[in-house]
Design goal:
Layout (H helix, E strand, L loop, with lengths): L4 H17 L5 H13 L3 H29 L1 H19 L5 H15 L2 H12 L4 H8 L2 H20 L3 H4 L1 H15 L21 H6 L2 H31 L4 H8 L1 H19 L5 H22 L4 H29 L6 H36 L1
Helix pairs in contact: 1-6, 1-8, 1-10, 2-8, 2-12, 3-4, 3-5, 3-6, 3-17, 4-5, 4-6, 4-10, 6-17, 7-14, 7-16, 8-13, 8-14, 12-13, 12-16, 12-17, 14-15, 14-16, 15-16, 16-17
């Protein structure tokens, strides 16, 4: 995949910008064990805070997908980064449950500005080898995840859970400034020949809802998000309690999930381009089947030892994020000729996070009632 200097710059800066979002959302999952001990909240209650994030994120995906197509992806991202920075700073100072729910819910909306906008920008700048481009770019949130958990885990272990919410805002504001100065939404804005004739579509959401393929993919993505949400939010707590690890060890142990996801996203993107005669749906089906088998193995064998658990978490990341990236990144880019890209990305991701809204408190309740084995089941 040959890229000219301008494409490399756009790809790299957009990649790094979206990865930085995760410092201001995964701080909640890594801080969960300490927050629970400090504020004496049950896992169900903590799950409600995570659920508030998910429902706001879902709603925001629908809104911000349309917004990125209307007023510009770059403006939408900058607005979201600044708002997320403010909400994180506030979260670090409050104790009341209702305020924690409200603030983290608003942060969910702020975070939702990112994905449809970055997919829109990448789609504007790249026309061919969509599976490979999407697989590579789709790993950006996994890199953000892999970096965020160890960094934030060290902050929590050294300075307490509140510091994990007070440290990221400065970085987010800096990233927002660099992104605003360094990125153009479209190639023609910097004097390049227009690569893509983006459709001017009215009633975007209605058109998407009439597409059977997009609705089917969004429905499958919802079920996939249910699994993803369980591991993204609860994996650090699982490692902390199941293997009696320190927060330092937990943060590095949990990072094997996105590490596996990076491998899975790149393989699935490349494979979907090479197996084009079978269709990307066949690749997604094979990976989801592999995920089901991995989950079954995890249920029966993860408790044997920490080493076995870590290997299985890596395989879970690989088989989970392969189809995830295809659905959330490549599929929206494929529909740019008939639909606005950001609207499609926002629709698929938004529908998916509706599943997370129920998964976060439900899994917390299962852990409270039946322990970790009940939640994994």
């Amino acid at each position: 995949m040959g890229l000219d200097p301008e494409q490399r710059r756009v790809f790299t800066l957009t990649y790094m910008t979206y990865a930085s979002y995760y410092l201001a959302r995964l701080n909640f999952s890594i801080a969960l064990p300490t927050i629970g001990e400090d504020l004496h909240y049950s896992k169900f209650t903590l799950g409600l805070i995570g659920g508030a994030f998910s429902i706001s994120y879902a709603i925001g995906q629908f809104v911000n997908g349309q917004l990125a197509d209307s007023v510009g992806a770059k403006r939408t991202i900058v607005m979201g980064l600044v708002l997320s920075a403010i909400m994180n700073a506030l979260f670090g100072y409050v104790d009341l449950l209702i305020l924690l729910v409200i603030i983290w819910g608003i942060n969910g909306y702020a975070q939702s500005t990112g994905w449809p906008s970055v997919v829109k920008i990448i789609s504007n700048w790249f026309r061919s080898a969509l599976g490979t481009v999407g697989g590579l770019f789709g790993s950006c949130f996994l890199v953000g995840n892999m970096i965020a958990w160890p960094v934030l885990g060290c902050i929590v272990a050294s300075y307490g859970w509140r510091a994990a919410f007070l440290a990221p805002p400065l970085l987010l504001v800096l990233v927002a400034a660099l992104f605003y100065l360094g990125i153009s939404d479209k190639p023609e804005e910097v004097g390049r020949t227009r690569e893509i004739d983006a459709p001017r579509v009215k009633f975007r959401l209605k058109r998407i809802l009439l597409s059977k393929r997009l609705v089917t993919i969004a429905s499958a993505y919802t079920l996939l998000q249910f699994v993803r949400s369980g591991f993204t939010l609860w994996a650090p707590s699982y490692l902390f309690e199941m293997y009696n690890l320190s927060l330092y060890a937990v943060s590095y142990g949990a990072a094997v999930i996105p590490l596996g996801g990076i491998v899975g996203s790149m393989i699935s993107g490349w494979l979907s381009d090479r197996a084009i005669r079978f269709g990307r749906t066949a690749v997604m089906f094979a990976l989801i089947l592999s995920l089901s088998l991995t989950l079954l193995t995890f249920y029966h064998m993860a408790s044997y030892s920490l080493q076995v658990g870590i290997i299985l978490l890596f395989l879970l990341g690989l088989t989970l994020y392969g189809p995830h990236v295809l659905m959330a990144t490549v599929i929206p880019m494929e529909h740019r000729e008939s639909h606005e890209v950001a609207s499609v990305a926002g629709f698929i991701d938004g529908i998916g996070y509706i599943g997370s809204t129920f998964a976060d408190p439900f899994i917390g309740w299962l852990v409270d009632v039946r322990g970790w084995s009940g939640a994994v089941t």
